[in-house]
Amino acid sequence: MTQIFAHRGSSGTRPENTMVAFYEAERNMADGIELDVQLTKDGKVVIIHDEKVDRTTDGKGYVKDFTLDELQKLNAGFFFQSGKFPDKIPTLEQFFHWFQRTEMICNIELKTKTVTNHELEEKVIAIIRAYGLDDRIILSSFNHYAIVYTYRLAPHIETAPLFMEGLYMPWIYAQSIQAKAIHPYYKVAPKTLVQMSEKEGVKVRPFTVNQEKNIKMFMEAGASAVITDYPELARKVKDQL
């Protein structure tokens, strides 16, 4: 059966990439949580999507220019529903402290563009190991150099390339970089691609699948998971099927 991954937590109903969004994902019986990580000025791994804090918090500037203490003074729920759910930018360790007590899977997206500096990947893997969560983690990225690096560093942790383009036989590409899954943008993942990839043993987890008809299509096609802002809706569709 298709699993339900809450995209940046239950980000359709709570501020994205916050603990309140992750708690809501668990309440909605999501099978997994997808989140984004990057480094602070002082080298801490924090959970936030954009390079800048401007869109999601009451601050301005690049994440990499803030220390952790400075970042955690910001309100990560500032712009969501008129600040109804105030919360801090969490660290990966703060998230894991809670997450290890759940039964969910976590898809960590590595927000990195460099092909030479692997500090983020190394720190993320060190934290995963410290919490003993190797078998409950999937590492994904649009930076496929980062994916290959993490595979070499920790071959037992599942990896999945993210992509937005229509690729020819993407399961072949995934196998060539030792990835067990692909995470395509849902518009470039037609039903036949899903079925062929799954048949070849490469899991498909399309993002971001928010419409009921698309959730249903991917579930009927046998996708391993859907990554959605609305896990509660996806659960309803799954229950109906």
TrEMBL record:
GO biological process: lipid metabolic process
SUPFAM superfamilies according to UniProt: PLC-like phosphodiesterases
A single GO molecular function term of this UniProt record: phosphoric diester hydrolase activity
Transmembrane stretches, start-end: none
Positions of the GP-PDE domain: 2-238
Annotated Gene3D superfamilies: Phosphatidylinositol (PI) phosphodiesterase
Official protein name in the record: Glycerophosphodiester phosphodiesterase
